[in-house]
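User: Show me a protein chain along with its predicted structure.
Assistant: Here is one chain, sequence first, then structure tokens.
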Amino acid sequence: MSSLIKEALGYLEPIGVSFVATSVDNQPYVRAMMLIYHDNRFFYATGSTDNKVGQITRNPRVQVCMSIENDEGSLRLRGEMSFITDEDTRAEVHGCAGFIQGFWDNPQDPDFVLMEFKPDYLELMRPGSIEIVRTKM
């Protein structure tokens, strides 16, 4: 892992607000979502009837953006989202992110959709700078 990637990921909290952009039929959609950064993996939870589920099914390429260091910098990641069906992973993430339990009582709930985001490109605007540094992941 490059020093830039380590630096960028060092800004992440285990759970934090991010903005996830999807695109279907040349129409962009952006929404705030809680990013769960667990064991060096990126997860999102949502309900099975949410529009984003259909959008990601049609086009799994997404971009994620979040502010860092008290909104003095930003981190953008591009990559692919996939749906997690593995029961052990679903249970582990359900257990480590308390806000999930407020929506879904257990990881077997059919309305609980767990997605993993696998970034392949990173853009970092360091706090206090307007320069953006980029790298493939």
